Fold each of these.
Amino acid sequence: MTVITEIKDFKRIYKNRVPKMFYDYCETGSWTEQTFRENSTDFEQIRLRQRVAVDMEGRSTTSKMVGRDVTMPVALAPVGLTGMQHANGEILAAKAAESFGVPFTLSTMSICSIEDVAEHTTAPFWFQLYVMRDEEFITNLIDRAKQANCDALLLTLDLQILGQRHKDLKNGLSIPPKLRPSVLMDLMTKWTWAFKMLGAKRRTFGNIVGHAKSVNDISSLASWTSEQFDPKLDWDTVKRYRKQWDGKFILKGILDAEDAKKALEIGADAIIVSNHGGRQLDGALSSIRVLPEIIDAVGDKIEVHLDSGIRSGQDVLKALALGATGTYIGRAYIYGLGALGQQGVETALSIIHKELDTTMALCGEKNIHKLNRSNLLIPEEFFQKYS
């Protein structure tokens, strides 16, 4: 039996247990995947400054994210199709996050619905919103999130147009999978996944089917989703949703200082420095590389969070030391979910927490709020300006 000590261990198990099209959905970026790769490799360029002979008793990683107490400043990011990585995946991930004491964010494109997750959890979760052309559907979706006591709305700004992801196109990704010969052959080797999916609460987009006009089955869902992402999304639209939502309001997909300033102007509580995990604009800079510039632009007037590329507690520490007040993991917890369900997510969070705590101690810090650039060794050219 595999002894799991790092996130990579989960990834190996996950690859063997989940159908190829869903593994590839998680493990892919757009176009050449340059940004997808650099999200992780840029973290590796930042080194750590070791300090010794410092009293390390009484260490604390507790913090707050948009006013919410957290065991560590790490939230589970919104990931579409989570319920296809493991049966009832969103429910299991939300329960794991609640048990560990960190926020869970439900995607608009989840398999289990807002109501499904609320039914199985007691802690409030966050809801991620994509802006779509059907304004009535979006208004109702926001109302449903309110009724489920979601305490933050996370609006994604960088998916007006879908980036081209070659593997998804080649695999013919669909929900549920189209049972063509190659898919059937793959599923025959993933019988544990298939058996669990037979007993799943849902196997299609739970937030959409039965809620959007004329979407009552798989065929109508496909045509609806292909037309719905709204390319007209602008800052006036963002302002409208800010007024409609009276809870914490988070904007995801910020990679430019000017956009960060606009987010501040419209009254967002936090921004997430993110390139959608390298799945949208290939060739964009990694999130960690642009983080300091964005923090310099908005100061402490708004919380600045980061996602894309985090695979360890050391990555979390580096983001915090550069000024982020919160971070998000997506693939890191999906590996655990696909491998071992709820237990896998809880273990993934424990691994990241232990890595964060141990690294913080070896850097000579005992309180997570004391982390700063002096804990890091950064190459001179790392934050070079591009013209």
Note: The domain at 7-374 is CATH 3.20.20.70 (TIM Barrel).
Amino acid sequence: MDIATLGGLVIGTAVMIMAIMLRGPITMFTDLTSFMITVVGSFCAVLVATPPHMMRKLMQIIRHAFIFETRSSIELINRLVRFGEIARRDGILALENALDETDDEFLVHGIEMAVDGSDPEHIHKTMATELSYLEERHRSGRKIFENLGTFAPAFGMAGTLIGLILMLRELQDVSAIGPRMGVALITTFYGVILANFVFLPIAEKLDSRHREELLLKEIIIQGVISIQSGDNPKVVEQKLKIFLPPVMRESVTRRQPGTKGPR
């Protein structure tokens, strides 16, 4: 569970509610008509703009923003260096037995191609193609929330126009001006809050998740190719360290042949 994402939403919502209640009742900011125009309208627009197969994955995409298994790039590099030591010491075919140490399908696939004798160019092309499809899937999921962040303020403005039209049509009825103006302003409020506090931040969080996963897979591609090419484990380590910030590079510890690496 990503505590930062959940905590930010909960604390932010609580602070806004408290700020509203300090100046008046919370019911002043609740309006079913405004909700229907802004929220339902935005989701309907996204339904129009998004392929059906992506909408079916909406809950999975939301879950990915809140629940994410953090993986250490340092541990991954250490594991790849250890695989390089095994390949250097016992031959690349010995890596088949070492695959039980990982449940990363992308890494397993790359090592299996190396064990099968695929040349580095073929391995790079295959894994890069898989990575490009991963990027496209992530981009499509992120696009849903970017669209929501775009549509919500627009529908809020549409609600404002609806409220103003209703108000102008009944200017002779002074008692109707307040409620109509309320609908006009609350829809804009809903649109702005939803876009900038929920939809766009979730899109940014999904993008952050994507960049983290992309880095790990780039490390895997470089590591597998280096191992298949028969590089010395020290060379494998040096090639993979460049993916890390300088302050983290000293944390990579190359294991000596015969010692156990991180599992």
Note: Residues 254-263 have pLDDT under 50 and may be disordered.
